[in-house]
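pasting for the record
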Amino acid sequence: MKKSINRRSFLKQSLLTGATGVAGIAGSNLFSSIAGLGKIQAALAQNSFSSFPDYKALVCIFLHGGNDGFNLLVPRDNDNYGVYQVSRQNLAIAQEDLLAIAPSSGGDFGLHPAMVEMQSLFQSGQLAIQSNVGTLIEPVTKAAIQSGTAVLPERLFSHNDQSALWKTAYAGGPGNTGWGGRVADLISTQNTSQVSMNISIAGNNLFQVGSNIAPYSMNASGPEEMFGLNSALEWEQNRAAVFQRIRDLSSNHLLERTHANLIRNTQDTADLLITALASAPTINTVFPPGNTLAAQLEMVAKMIGSSDILGFQRQIFFVTLGGFDTHNRQNIDQPTLLSTLSQAMNSFYNATEELGVANQVTSFTLSDFGRTLTSNGDGTDHGWGSNHMIMGGAVNGGDIFGTVPELSIGGPDDVGDGRMIPTTSVEQYAATMARWFGINESELLEVFPNLANFNTSNLGFMTS
């Protein structure tokens, strides 16, 4: 025990005394943030202690392709199920197959039959659902859209554009920073770590990019290392020594010096993270094998277990699961995708319980958009509003938040072809979590420029 404590203390001190130099530079990030290095270093230089009394993490689970959220959550009462069944045609889930949930605010609903684990978490109070979220600049109605007076986000129903708007939480136009990055810009100096507080297990992404913050990219196995420089073989050790001598050659050229510093920082950061992960608590929770999302979330859990060693009070993680663009084979593919999602999220929640941080970690889903209620024969097309899940011990679980739309073709919530008009904006959804994370009221408007257009910035699904 004494040896373990001393080792953890040594690692933590090593990270606090400038061994790594620069936050957020690794792997494919190597050349992406040269312009921001001065700002990042300045922020780190100011960072001597944290004003936060606790640790918190946000975990973004991005469902690439546009998940059909109206088959994730389905009304079970006879009247509303009948409307749903007529609209969804061959895509409708049999009423008796739905996994019954009892929202605390009332109503009779069911989850997709592939989401057994999420049913259990909902019923036990660790999972909430926000209904009918989408990209909005301001509240809109069907009448305003039909009359041409509505102010709408650009390029609705486009994968690339709508995916970007979910990640930026700014539907007023294209942006080059994500809301996770802007939150980190405001909070990162509260950490004592010199590794970026924004960690991606799924490569570069707009969500985590700030003005001063770049995400640190890892993979599900850990930090990426330079190939051929870390072997125990003598000849590879010789090669590593030669590489380091070349790397450390003095140069009068700014780009050459910057390049050498980035490589050095990348190697040092990877080495420290690998050692910190090796010293983190062992996680006994079983993550389902062959589940790519579960593998990413397992690495997130390990990083959270290393947070005290690394000097983190706040962290934001990004993981992904693709395949949700179900233009065809929806009845075949979506059950597999939602089962993968449900099992992975459940294992991750159990891991946070094991680590004793379930109340301090909030996970949530994002996606490109919802999908049409109408069937194209074998699947669905690009929609707008959708249902999303929030999970964690600090979540007001066991309830559905927001306004559940009328799932009728041509109804008051259908802008056309079964595309649901969102009743909650991405900015409101994100701001509710950002407030819990430590962003104050004035800062919320800085992070989310359109937030003032909506009647509330707190949707209520977080406990504080």
